[in-house]
Amino acid sequence: MSWKEDNDCCSWDGVTCDKVTGHVIDLDLSCSGLYGNIPSNSSVFFLPQLQKLNLAFNDFDYSQISSNFGQLISLTHLNLSASNFNGSIPSEISHLSNLVSLDISSVLDVYPIIYRSYYLNVPLSIERPVFERIVQNLTMLKTLALNYVDMSTIIPNSLMNLSSSLTSLSLCYSILQGNFPTQIFRLPNLQILRLRGNFNLTGSFPKVNWSSPLKSLDVTDINFSKQLPNSIGNLLSLREFYLENCTLMGSIPTSFGNLTQLSYLSLGYNKFSGQIPSFLSNLVQLCLLDLSFNNFIGQFPEFFVNLTQLSSLDLSSNQLTGPISSHVNALQKLVDIRLNSNNLNDTIPSWLFTLPLLESLDLSENQLTGHIDQFQSKSLKNLYLDGNALTGSISTSIFEQVNLTVLTLSSNNFSGIVKLHLFSKLKNLLLLDLSHNSLSINTTFKASSSFPQLDYLKLSGCNLSEFPDILRSFNQLRYLDLSENKISGQIPNWMWEIGMDTLAYLNLSFNYLTNIEKLPLENLFILDLNSNKLQGSLPIPPSSLTVLFLSNNKLSGEIPDLICNKSVLEILDLSNNSFSGNIPICMGNFSYLHVLDLRKNKLSGTIPGSFAKGSLLRTLNLNENELEGPIPRSLVNCTMLEVLDIGNNKVIDTFPYWLQSLPELQVLVLHSNKFYGSVRGCSEMNHCFPKLKVLDLSKNKFGGPLPASYFKNLQAMKDVGEVGTKLQYIGESYYQDSITVTMKGHLFGFMRIFVAFTAIDFSNNNFCEEIPEVIGELYSLIHLNLSSNNLTGCIPSSLGNLNALESLDLSFNKLGGKIPWQLANLDFLQVLDLSQNQLTGPIPRAPHFDTFPNTSYAGNTGLCGFPLSKECKSDGTLQPRSEIEDNAESTNGFGWKVVLIGYASGMVIGLFMGYLVFSTGKPQLLVRIVEGETVERGGGRMRDVEEEENSGFMFYRPSIVLN
Known about the structure:
Mean pLDDT: 83
Number of helices: 6
Number of strands: 71
Low-confidence stretches: 109-120, 517-524, 876-963
CATH architecture of the domain at 696-961: Alpha-Beta Horseshoe
Helix content: under 10%
Oligomer: single chain
C-alpha cells in the first residue's frame, strides 16, 4: 500500500536507499504476494547499485530463474528461496562475485526437530559446470543454501573448493550421492552445516585433529561409518546436533560429555546399544533429547534430574525396563514426553501428573500398571496410554483438559462406567480410542452433546449391544470403529447420516448384524463389515468408496455388474462369503484397484480376461472357488502384481510361462487345479520371475523334468536381502496378504506373509527324472516340497547348501542312493520327510538330525541306523556326523541346542511350531521367541511414527494362535 507514485520510493516498504546517493541498495520483497514470471525487462535488473535482493516466499509460477540476475554485479545478498522457481539455475549467477550470501532453496530448510520426510517434487536443479563456476568465482561467499535443489550430477568432492570463509552450508534434500568429503567438517569458519535427507550420501567424521566452530550440525539420513569417533567431543561450540537414521551402532562416545553447550541432541533411528550413558547429565543446557528407535537397555535414568532445561524427551522404541523414576521431579519445563514402546512397568510416577507445561505424554505399549492420577494442570493436548495394564476408572481430570486433541486408552484394564457425552466438553478433541477395556459405555444421547471437531472414534471391544444413539451428534466424523462388539439386528437408517459429508472409515466387523438393507453410502470412504453374520446380497458401493471390506460374512447372491461403476475402488475384499455366479467381466477395468480378494466363495465361470494396460493391481486372490477355463493372458498387463493366488479351483491350462515377465510378482499359487504339461519357457537370456519368493504348483498334472532353468533364475530365493529387526509383511496399510502351505499332509495358514518367507511346492504332480543340483543355489529357501512325484536318481548333496531350510519333503518318489551327509548340517531343519523312496545306507548322525522320527524314513527298506531299529553293519558304513558340525560346536562354545533356541528371533518367526510340537516331539521349539511388531487392526491410529502391534502368526487347521 505504501508504493505510490507521488511518494519517494525510498519511503516504500521493502525499499532501502543509500543516504548519500539515493540509489536503491536493498530490496526486500519477501512474502509480498508476487505472482507470475519476472520479465527480462523488469526494472529490478536496472538497479546497478543494488546490494541486497530478497524475493523469498512469493509465487513465480514455476518460471525459470532469469539469467539477468547476473547483471546485478553489486549484489552481496541474493535470496530466491521458496518462490516456486523451476528449471536449472542459470550459470550467470556465477558472475556475482561479490556475493556473501546465496539462497536459492526450493523449500526453506525445515526446522530439524521434525523427523525425516521424503523427497518432494524437486523443481529446481543445478548442473555440475554451473556449480563449479559458482564455487570458483564466489570467493567471498559465507552463506550458501540449496535446499531441495537437484544436485545429483554434482561430485561431492567439488565441495572441497568452497570458500574457506564459509560460515553456513545448507544442502538438505538435494539428492547428493557419493562420499561426502571429510575436509568440509574442518572448514575454519563453518558454524552451520545441514545435509539432512540426502539418503544416498555416505560419509565419516574426522577421527583426529578436529577442532571447529560448528554450532549447528545436521547429517540426518546420511550413511555414516558404524561408530562415532571420540573427536566429536572437540566441538565445544555445538548447540544443535542431529544424527537421526545414520546407521550408527555401538555406544555413545564418552567425549559427548564435553558438549556442554548443546541445546538440541537427536540420535534417533540408529542402533546405539548399552545403557543410556550417565555423562549426558553434563549437558545441562539441553532442551531436546531424542534417543528413540535404538537398542538402549536398562532403567529410566535418574540422572535426568540434572537436565532442568529439558522441554522434549523421546526415549521411545528402545528396550528400557523397570519403573519410571519417581525422583525426576525437577523437569518442570517438560512439554513433550515419549516413552512408548519399551518394557517399562510399575505405576506411573506422580511427578508426571504435576508438570505445569505438559502438552504431550506418550506411555503407550509398555507394561504399566495402577491407575491414572489427577492431572494438576490443563495444558494436555495429546495423551497416549494404550497398550498397558492400567486399571481403575478414567480420571475425571481428563474431562477438564480443554485443549485435548488426542486420547488413546485402548488395550488396558480400565473399568467402571464411562458416560460418552462427558467427552463433549473437550471441544478440541479429534481422536478418541477407548477400545478393548472392561468399561461399560453409557451412550445415552443428550441434546447438549456436541462434538464439533471429533473425526476419529474407536470403540472396538467395548461390549456394546446396540448402535450408540449419541453417534447422531457426530457431524464431522471421518473414522468410526464399532468392531468386536455384540451389536445385533439391522443397521439403523440414521447410521448413514453420521458425518454425512465426512465419514471416511466405518468398521462394524465382529458383530451380529443380520441385515444391511438400505445402505446409502454415498459419502463412505472405507467400509469393513467382516466377520459378521450378515445375510443378503452385496450392496452397490458409493462412487467415492476407495476401500471396501465385506469379508467373513454370510453374504450370498451374485456380485452385481454395477459395482464396476465404482472406478475409484482401491481395495475390494469380499472373501469368506457365499457369493456365487460369475465374476463381473468389467472387474479387470478398475483404474485404481490394488487388491481384489474373492477367495472362499462359490464363484464359477472363468477368470475375467479384461485386465487393462497400466493396471495398478497388486493382489489377485481367487483361491477356493469353482472357477474354470484358462488363466487370461491379459494379466501380463498387471505389471504391479505381487500376489497371484488361484489355488483350489478347476482351472484347466498349461503352465503360464508368460507371467515370468511380471517384474514385481512375489507369490504365485496354482495348487489344486487341473494344470498339465511340462514347466518350461525360461531361457538363460531372460530374467524369469526376478522377485518370486513363493511358487506353489502342487496337486496338478504337471509332468516332465523339474524346471532347472527357472530355479537358476529365482534371484529372490537366493538372497532375500537384509531382514532387519522389525517384522515386515507383504501387503499395505489396510490389507495384508495371506498364504497356506502344506506340510506332512496338513495345511498351515499364515494370516500374513513375512517378506523373508520363501517356498517351493511341486508336490502331487508327475514330475520325473533327477532333482536338479541348481536348487542348492536357492540359499534363502525355507520350505521345499517335492513329494508325491516320480523323481529318480540320488538326493543332490547341494541341498546341504540351503542353510535357511526349515522344511524338506521328498517323500513318495523313487529316489535312490544314500542320504547325503551334508543334510545333517542344516541346523534349522525342523521337518524332514524322506519316506517311501528307495534310499539305502546309514542315516546321517547329528544331534538335531537324531530328533526326526521313524516316519521320516519309512518305506526305505535299505536304510539303517538311528532312529530305525535296523542297525548298520560295523564295516565302516555308518556315516559319522560331519566335521563341520564338530568344529562349529567346539570352536564357538555352543552346540546345536543353543542354535535351535537362538534361532528364536531369526528368519521365519516360528514357522511350523504348532504342528511340530505335537507331531515331532521337539519341545525345545517352545522356546522360540517372536520379536516383532505388526500394524494395528482397523487402520491404525493417527501418530507421527508408524506403529505396530505385537502378534505372531495365526495358524488354522489345526487352529493354533501363536504370540
